[in-house]
Specification:
The chain is an alpha/beta fold. The protein has five helices and four strands. It has a four-stranded parallel beta sheet with strand order 3-2-1-4, with helices on both faces. The longest helix is centred in the N-terminal third of the chain and has 12 residues. It is globular. The model has no long low-confidence stretch (mean pLDDT 88).
């Protein structure tokens, strides 16, 4: 069996520590080897940031960056890419949670289909109200494809 690819998960965040901790807890529960996964969180200038709580939720493979002022998600992601060590990069937002096989699924699809981008189902964190935006997202993108369809 081939060695599993190393993965960097990049998460920009702004002023939602409870949701970020839920996201990090779902990543900490992955069935992927911890030594093959890195989590890069970029706090994008939050007025208050509970660093100790975030570090506890994330586990040992956290790289935490802090922007002194709000730069926006794109700049925060770009900053994280500069320090990402993984062969693969996975983007999440801080209001998303993932199932335990999430990283394995990304590694598998990239091993099977090199040079591709993979997308998956968006699972909103608990506490995200169902509204017009979440219903719209549930009807777009990957939701329009049959499982496994390229």
């Amino acid at each position: 069996m081939a060695e599993l690819q190393s993965i960097s998960v990049i998460i920009p965040t702004y002023d939602e520590p409870e949701r970020l901790c839920q996201t990090l807890a779902s990543l900490a529960a992955q069935d992927y080897p911890g030594d093959r996964a890195q989590v890069v969180v970029v706090d994008d200038g939050s007025p208050a940031f509970p660093e100790a709580e975030v570090r506890t939720a994330a586990g040992p493979n956290l790289r935490l960056l802090r922007n002194p002022t709000n730069q926006g998600r794109a700049r925060s992601r770009n900053r994280a890419i500069e320090v990402a060590e993984g062969e693969l990069v996975v983007f999440l937002d801080s209001d998303m949670t993932v199932p335990p096989h999430f990283l394995h699924a990304h590694a598998r699809i990239h091993a099977q289909q090199t040079g591709r981008v993979a997308i998956g189902n968006i699972r909103f964190s608990t506490g995200i109200d169902r509204n017009a935006l979440t219903r719209y997202i549930d009807s777009r993108g990957v939701h329009r494809l049959a499982p496994g369809e390229p």
